[in-house]
Amino acid sequence: MSQFECLGIQTKEKKFKRRLSQWIRPSASIENFQNTEAQIKEFLAANVMNQTLGPESELPPAYSPSEMTLQTAETLRLQQPRTDTPPDSWPEPLRSIAPFMEDHQHTPSPGAYISYNPFRNEPHPDIRSSMRQFSGASESADSETVKTLRACLGDMFQPFVDAIKPAAEVALDDWLKAAIWWALRGKAALTNWRDSDALHTQAEGQPSSEEIAQGMVDLAKAWWICHQILTRDDFKIMTSDLRLEGTPRGALLDQSRCVVKYLKRFEKHITNFLCGGSDLAGTLGVDKSLWVFYPSCSAYDAAVLDGGSLAVQRSPYPPIAFGDTDVLYSYGSEFVEVTLLSQEGYALPSSMKCVLSFVREMCSWDMVGVISSQTDLVNIRIQSDSSRGATWKDIEWEVDRLSMLVKLSRGYFLKVRLSEENFKIVWEVAHQAVSTDASFVADNQEQLLFDEEIKYCQYINHARPSDFPAKPTKQGRVRLFKKWETVAEGTGKRRAHRGFRIFVSTPPHSRTVNHVSNILHNSSPVSCSLIESDDGSPGIFLQLLEEGQKRSFFLYFYDLESRSQIHSLLLDLIPGAGETSTQAFHIRSYVIMESQADGSGETKGGQHLDLRESLASVIEQKNDPVRSAYGKTILSESLRVVIASDWSSITDRINIGPGQLAISLSVIDDTMINIHRLPQKDLTMTVAHDLVSEEMLRKATDLLHKVQDKPSIRRIQFASVDDLHKFQESITGFKVLFDGLATQFLISRRRKMIPIHKQWEANLTRVQVVQQGIKIQIVAFFYQFHRWKSINFAVKSTDEFEKVDQKGEWGIRFKDAKYALPRPDTQTSDYVCLDELAFPTEHDDIGILFQDASVRDKFAESLPGAVGNAPRRLLC
Question: Which fold has domain 583-729?
Answer without folding.
Answer: PH-domain like (2.30.29)
